[in-house]
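Our preliminary data section would be incomplete without showing what the modeling component actually yields. Below, a chain of 264 amino acids is followed by its predicted structure, encoded as tokens that our downstream tools consume directly.
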Amino acid sequence: MNSSQDFNQLYRDVSENMTSAMADLADLKVDNKEGQERLFSINNKLREIQAGFDEELEFLEENAEWEKFTMAFFGETNAGKSTIIESLRILFNEESRQNLLDEGQGDLEKFSEEVELHADKVKTQLSQFYHLYTAEIMSIRHEATQLADILRQEADARLRLEEKSAVVEADILRKEVKARLELEKEKAAKEADILRKEVDSRLKLEEERIAAEEDILRKESKARVQVVENQASAKFMRKLTFVGLAAAGTGAGVAALSFMLLGG
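Predicted structure:
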């Protein structure tokens, strides 16, 4: 790649970097209205600068000459620029200078005046170009600073909102936990009451069952006692019957013997 191609690529890189910077600015999200206006203004100014810059680059790509080394001198009037240039021309024995010397001193002075006039025009144009872009860049820098302040304020406001939201969410969560605990307590109390009622009901049923069993046992015992009493009474009556029969039939001795035999 030669020097011309190198510099042309450099120009394209500069233009592409400006395009990339504007794309990054376009992707920047700003909620504040003033910040949006600042961002829009910066984009417009950068777009204008890029348009002018691209025109200058296109002109340079088409007209720039890289085969010869060119040196320019800038400075105040009578600072010695022409003296240095003339010394270099003498030192390198410039062909055009020698031809001018041969043609006459008058032509040399006229040529020098034309060169000086052309150099002054170039210097003026360069100065205007420099001041133009310097003013634009300073304006963009000022607006960028203001935009940074707006973004910082937005970030602070968002942080405060997030902190406030976090406090509100924490309070809501605390209330939810408290409500859940209350519900759990109520649920536990209801379950305990139900369990207590179930225990009381079971105890009552058990007491009723025991009472019923005791009543049955009591009735069974009473019935058994009654049976025993009835059996004893019947046995006693049989004894009396035998005694009566014996007394009537054989006399007192037989009756006594019968009574003894019957278990009396």
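The first helix runs from residue 3 to 27. The mean pLDDT is 75. Preliminary results of this kind motivate Aim 1 of the renewal.
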